[in-house]
Design a protein that fits this description.
single chain, 396 residues, alpha/beta, Aspartate Aminotransferase, domain 2, seven-stranded mixed beta sheet, binds pyridoxal-5'-phosphate
Length: 396
């Protein structure tokens, strides 16, 4: 038989996070206990008021296609939220509702990138921002987020990497995998560069509600000159613990939304109707539900930060948002002769702790492992106990 697979497919691989997860699940099937620090999925149930809205929508018979762009009620609700919370002066015509933020990212990048175009992408990063440009024949150009800079972008580096081919820059704040939050100062500097160099900014704000100890989230679209050149990418997965519902959105200038919609229409037609109704309720009727979840994440975060500092050979910058710790394991790697991928495998095989090697998020992740604290406090305590045992052994 001929080789039927498109040449594009050889440009990308499967998610390294899923690989760890599949191995961990296989170990559990063999009767081993594994502590899951690998998956970036909230461990809470979706708040009851949101489920109720979906059930009521189904009972009303709202089981048909909606407008491709999304339910008008939801688009208006999202625009209201963006005005009130993010200070972005958008109306419903600036919103496209997608099947999760993942679809939104795919559509938005495909609408903008031609083969050969360059797009600046953080390193480390959630890998869709590298894989999708590659699939499109575009060039993801990494810019470094370094622990010693508190994972803020280096604006001189950004400037130096912009060429005639650069169309856009991706930023993720709060960040996966580092848990950092970009400061207002950094974003103001970036905004100036974007305007001067005439590039677009893709701002992934899916973790915006998960902030700790008073950290501030700033939407770059709210800064001078940016509303016309920013794609604000967000969704319901993380804040409302709705990963399985698949609901996300793009907020952008209306002329871009019209183009993105052509793609979205061909790919998925629309997001599920009753899920969109649940999205309206999520935004409109929220009381303390998200705050309660964030309080619990913060309790876990504080425990892990304190514990990691006491474990020999490990350290970490303080995460200010999301639910990740990017653990610096360089000392253990140096002492044991393992790289971070080998160390992560060793910890899973020998101690039943599932962590993701930093290199899964880009080359700069060597010497780091991502730990998600979207797991129960009890499991986290047990996982940290095992991690300490392993580290003490490896640092002997
Ligand atoms: C930075 C970032 N953006 C987007 C997503 C995907 O969100 P969704 O579940 O809405 O597709 C994730 C999921 O892990 C993420 O970490």
């Amino acid at each position: 038989m001929r080789d039927f697979i498109s040449s594009k497919m050889s440009t990308i691989g499967l998610s390294g996070i899923r690989k760890v997860n599949e191995k961990a699940l296989a170990m559990e099937r063999e009767g081993k206990t594994v502590i899951h620090f690998e998956i970036g999925r909230p461990d809470f149930d979706t708040p009851e008021y949101i489920k109720k809205a979906a059930k009521e929508s189904l009972d009303r018979g709202e089981v048909f296609y909606t407008s491709n762009l999304g339910d008008m009620g939801l688009r208006k609700q999202i625009a209201e939220k963006l005005n009130k919370e993010n200070h972005i002066p958008y109306t419903a015509e600036n919103i496209l509702v997608a099947v999760g933020l993942s679809e939104a990212v795919f559509d938005a990048l495909m609408t903008i990138l031609d083969p050969g175009d360059e797009i600046l992408v953080p390193d480390p990063v959630w890998m869709n921002y590298v894989n999708v440009p590659k699939l499109l024949g575009a060039v993801p150009v990494p810019y470094l987020l370094k622990e010693e800079n508190d994972y803020q972008m280096d604006l001189d580096e950004i400037r130096s990497k912009i060429t005639d081919k650069t169309k856009a820059l991706v930023m993720v704040t709060p960040n996966n995998p580092t848990g950092s939050v970009l400061s207002r100062e950094t974003l103001e500097g970036l905004a100036k560069i974007a305007v001067e160099k005439d590039i677009l900014v893709f701002a992934d704000e899916v973790y915006e509600r998960l902030l700790y100890h008073g950290a501030e989230h700033v939407s770059i679209a709210s800064l001078p000159g940016m509303v016309d050149r920013t794609f604000t990418l967000n969704g319901f997965s993380k804040a409302y613990s709705m990963t399985g519902w698949r609901l996300g959105y793009i907020a952008a200038p209306a002329e871009f939304i019209k183009e993105i919609n052509k793609l979205h229409q061909n790919a998925v037609t629309c997001a599920p109707s009753f899920v969109q109704k649940a999205g309206i309720a999520a935004l409109r009727d929220e009381k303390d539900e998200v705050r309660e979840m964030v309080k619990e994440y913060e309790r876990r975060r504080d425990y892990i930060v304190k514990t990691i500092e006491e474990i020999p050979g490990l350290s970490s910058a303080d995460p200010k948002g999301a639910f990740y710790l990017f653990i610096n394991c360089r000392e253990i790697c140096a002492k044991s002769g393992m790289n971070s991928q080998q160390l992560a495998e060793y910890l899973l095989d020998k101690y039943g702790i599932a962590l993701v090697a930093g290199t899964v998020f880009g080359d700069s992740g060597e010497g780091y492992m991502r730990m998600s604290f979207a797991n129960s406090y009890e499991n986290i305590v047990e996982g940290c106990r095992r991690l300490r045992e392993a580290a003490v052994e490896l640092m002997k």
